[in-house]
Write a structure and sequence with these properties.
heterodimer, A: alpha+beta, 4-stranded antiparallel beta sheet, 7 strands, B: alpha+beta, 24% strand
Chain lengths: 294, 290
């Protein structure tokens, strides 16, 4: 990982076909107080301890490159939503898995890689199903969902695990990850309504719930969170994504896009989009990492 | 033992000659950030993410190089803060934040180091901590340069040097477990069977007070990957799906709170082997869970 290396300009400020995040969604997510309300009891203000002075951003980015300390380095897989409208839930799952793996203490030196599975994922990485949130957020399937909607659902009752996992965890309930393309590390399947979830699913989902969610209060807060290894999820330009590393020289944010690819937001976009963003600090934690749902 | 000053003299001469061209040690330019604009409303963190032990800094008595017309002691001011000791296998930070100048040039004797930073703060890491001469003291020199803004000509130079010893760092604060069954003398180390192998290491923290540093994260990753110890982080308010403290974290949380957060608690099954308060280096983590 080199946050100073040249990048392909075609990966910057990419406009993609509608992926489930509209201008109406964006306006609602950025309304004052909306995200705090959606987070409920899990909402947290930006801790002073996590603020990194801008004069230190460059040095911190160098250190993160050396030690693989970006949010990207706590995410071990891509997901692929194409051609569905599930983007806000894919962004949410990346944020949640980053928090989960960060506390599990495992670093994935190259971040997610297409068609690749890290052996270390079997040490306790759990793959969450975006569909398990989206089904409730939008029962009509088409049309997408707001960031605040999916966060509200996740922090109240949690994710179901994906049917594909890096280890045999003995889950009693699981759900396909997406109705989209999926991939080697994400199952794909037909649409399923909330009422058709496997009986008793709440017992499993409660083990995978965001506990504390930090709400950045400025552009500098958003950058500081990423520098400290926290994904910052944000909706902008018709798509919701998780910022996963920062490039101090040009101020761009790199993100793990839910199309098996890393892309970038220019600094102009980052400075306008951070409002309505969030970073999951902690998830529920298991009594036994080999049986994360008990 | 090699004298660290001999290469230092040569090094200072080279560094002074390099003032005419940029010869930063780090990949990027080392221009001072003192003149960089900072958002007026953004507050610097009250508690730095990295703490560096105060150390004695010295200004060398070496005369400025004859090839320049620089007044060695004028506007430029080099203030170098470095820890007096440095454990091989770990990382440490050098600070020059209070220095005054336009350019910061760092030099270090020896070849087994990687140094990164923005000029005002550098992180150094041994690349070969097990090398035979990894215990040799080494010299770190900070050269601060002031240039005329209009012409770019150097008008002032100052330097500061610190000698850092790679061994003998003060041991981390170790909190003994509850009183052993056999009597011990006061201040005796915890009674722990040296053959007991650690099975888990838990870094317990409060996220509102502690930004877990990349160095700690890297060390925990090494415990997981290399030593096959279940090394995890636990935010003190985290719960399981039922709202309770997860079973595996009940004892570590209690031990860590006794010692004061953040703390690393090393377990062998359900027994606490040791608690280390506020470990800040990779070495402190790795040594606590052999």
């Amino acid at each position: 990982m080199n946050s100073f290396a040249p990048i392909d300009p075609s990966l910057v400020d990419v406009s993609i076909p509608p992926s489930g995040y509209t201008a109406k969604h964006e306006a609602a997510d950025r309304a004052a107080g909306a995200m705090r309300m959606a987070c409920g009891a899990s909402a947290r203000s930006m801790p002073e301890s996590l603020r990194v002075d801008p004069s230190e951003w460059r040095a911190r980015a160098q250190l993160n490159d050396e030690l693989h300390a970006w949010p990207l380095n706590h995410v071990d897989r891509f997901t692929n939503q194409s051609p569905t409208d599930e983007c806000t839930t894919h962004s949410l799952r990346t944020n949640a898995e980053c928090a989960w793996n960060r506390n599990r203490g495992i670093i994935f030196p190259d971040g997610p890689k297409k068609n690749f599975r890290y052996p270390e994922s079997a040490l306790g990485s759990v793959w969450f199903s975006p569909l398990s949130i989206y089904s409730e957020a939008n029962p009509n399937q088409r049309g997408g969902a707001m960031v605040i909607q999916v966060m509200d659902i996740a922090q109240k009752r949690g994710f179901l695990p994906d049917k594909i996992q890096p280890a045999e965890y003995g889950f009693k309930h699981s759900l396909q990850g997406t109705c989209g393309a999926g991939g080697m590390n994400q199952s794909s399947g037909p649409w399923v309504r909330l009422r058709d979830f496997p009986a008793g699913w709440q017992e499993t989902a409660k083990s995978f719930r965001p506990l504390e969610v930090i709400l950045p209060e400025s552009y500098e807060d958003a950058v500081s969170l990423v520098l400290n290894g926290y994904c910052v999820s944000v909706g902008r330009n018709g798509h919701a994504i998780p910022w996963s590393f920062f490039r101090p020289d040009d101020g761009m944010m790199g993100y793990i896009d839910s199309y098996d690819v890393i892309r970038y937001d220019s600094n102009r976009i980052v400075r306008s989009a951070w409002r309505g963003s969030f970073a999951i600090a902690t998830m529920t934690q298991p009594g036994d990492w080999s049986k994360p749902a008990g | 033992m090699r004298c660290p000053l001999k290469p230092l003299v040569a090094m200072l001469a080279c560094a002074a000659m390099a003032i005419g061209i940029e010869a930063p040690l780090t990949p990027a330019s080392l221009r001072s950030v003192a003149s960089a604009e900072q958002p007026a409303t953004y507050r610097a963190p009250a508690n730095p993410t990295v703490t560096v032990a105060p150390a004695v800094t010295t200004t060398p008595t070496i005369a400025p190089p004859a090839t320049t017309t620089v007044d060695p002691i004028s506007t430029a001011k080099a203030i170098l803060v470095a820890p007096p000791t440095f454990r091989p296998g770990g990382n440490t930070f050098l600070q020059a934040a209070d220095s005054v100048g336009d350019e910061f040039v760092w030099k270090i004797t020896g070849e087994r180091f990687v140094m990164v930073g923005d000029g005002r703060k550098q992180a150094i890491t041994f690349t070969e901590p097990d090398a035979a001469d990894a215990t040799e003291p080494f010299a770190v020199t900070l050269l601060v340069v002031v240039r005329d803004r209009a012409t770019g000509v150097v008008t002032s130079v100052d330097a500061a040097t610190a000698i850092v010893k790679p061994v003998g760092v003060a041991p981390p604060i170790v909190v003994a477990p509850s009183a052993p069954s056999t009597p011990t003398t006061p201040d005796a180390p915890p009674v722990v069977d040296p053959s007991t192998k650690a099975t888990a290491a838990i870094y317990v923290y409060e996220k509102d007070q502690t930004a877990v540093s990349p160095i700690i994260m890297a060390a925990m990753n090494r415990l997981n990957r290399e030593r096959k110890i279940t090394a995890t982080l636990f935010e003190q308010n985290a719960t399981d799906g039922g709202g309770d403290v997860p079973e595996q974290y009940k004892i570590p949380l209690a031990k860590a709170k006794e010692a004061g957060l953040p703390a690393l608690v090393v377990m062998a099954g359900s027994d606490c082997l040791r608690t280390v308060k506020n470990p800040t280096t990779e070495a402190a983590i790795l040594e606590a869970a052999p």
